[in-house]
Specification:
The protein is α/β, with parallel strands linked by helices and 264 residues long. The chain has a single domain (4-258), classed as TIM Barrel, CATH 3.20.20. The protein is 35% helix and 17% strand. It is built from 8 helices and 11 strands. The chain has helices at 20-30, 58-71, 91-99, 129-144, 168-184, 193-197, 214-223, 244-253; strands spanning 4-5, 34-40, 77-84, 105-108, 112-115, 118-122, 188-191, 201-202, 207-208, 226-230, 257-258. A hairpin with a 4-residue loop joins β8 and β9 (207-208). α4 packs parallel to α5. The protein binds zinc ion (2 copies). The site of one zinc ion has 5 residues, from loops.
């Protein structure tokens, strides 16, 4: 049974459903003991309605989750955080969120490139070796800031990229991220999100999920990286799903160094 989840969204991001309280109730029903809310980060001055809530929603998010934390304290441990890219332009903002205790933790979900004052390329649509290398550079840069508790879906770049197991560019990107995970002692998340919205497909080389991308986890196992599972719930019922069994299978198959807890 999966008794923790640090990766949970809310309706505020524009592509999730359910009330905050319904997520808590579903988590309790699923046997989850530690539930972390990590909605897509709201950024001052950024209006990005289907990816993240507006900055003006911050107060409501914080007060809602804090109220649930108190209300359900006897049943479940709740933490308040954000899933966030690392955009250097917002470095001060991330640090202030943590330092002032507005949120308790951040996880690194490097979905987008931010350039010229706006959000642009989506790394789930990488097509070229340069794009996946840029993704890896962005992830490692974020990891090196010390702001993030773990890396969400580090294999996101394989959602769009096609190359097959022996592609040296894919291999380099995987090694680069795993090497940073090991060096900085930052766990990597086996993410269950894409298994629900896409399922298995043939990528021209093999049947697979968008992510988890198995060769990534094979190398993470060889390198001894710490790993954990993230439901990436966008609906309360997703906390009750059984997709985690596939992730547990990867943990066994590749002898992954699985952890079940992060210090917050
Ligand atoms: Zn999302
Ligand atoms: Zn994400």
């Amino acid at each position: 049974m999966l008794d923790y989840c640090y990766h949970t969204h809310t309706y505020r991001c524009g592509h999730a459903e359910g009330t905050d309280e319904e997520f808590v109730q579903a988590a309790i029903q699923a046997g989850i003991k530690t539930l972390g809310f990590s909605d897509h980060i709201f950024l001052p001055g950024v209006h990005d309605p289907y990816s993240r809530g507006d900055y003006e929603m911050l107060g409501d998010y914080v007060s809602s989750i804090r109220a649930l934390k108190a209300k359900y304290a006897r049943d479940i441990k709740i933490h308040l955080g954000f899933e966030s890219e690392y955009f250097p332009a917002f470095d001060d903002y991330y640090r202030r969120l943590l330092k002032d205790g507005i949120v308790e933790y951040l996880i690194l979900g490097h979905h987008f490139l931010y350039e010229n004052g706006r959000i642009s390329f989506y790394y789930g649509m990488c097509k070229t070796p340069n794009q996946i290398k840029e993704y890896a550079d962005g992830v490692v840069r974020g990891m090196e800031t010390g702001l993030f508790k773990y890396v969400a879906h580090p294999d996101l770049f394989m959602a769009g990229y096609r190359g097959g197991r022996l592609d040296p560019d894919i291999h380099d990107v995987i090694v680069k991220i795993c090497e940073a995970s090991k060096r900085l002692d930052i766990p990597l998340e086996i993410n269950l999100g894409s298994m629900r919205f896409r399922g298995l497909f043939h990528d021209g080389f093999e049947m697979r999920y968008l992510y988890p991308y198995e060769p990534f986890w094979e190398i993470a196992g060889e390198m001894g990286c710490k790993v954990l599972i993230g439901v990436d719930a966008h609906h309360p019922n997703e906390l009750l799903g059984k997709e985690y069994l596939y992730a547990e299978g990867l943990i066994e198959k590749y002898h992954l160094n699985a952890i079940r807890h992060i210090d917050i």
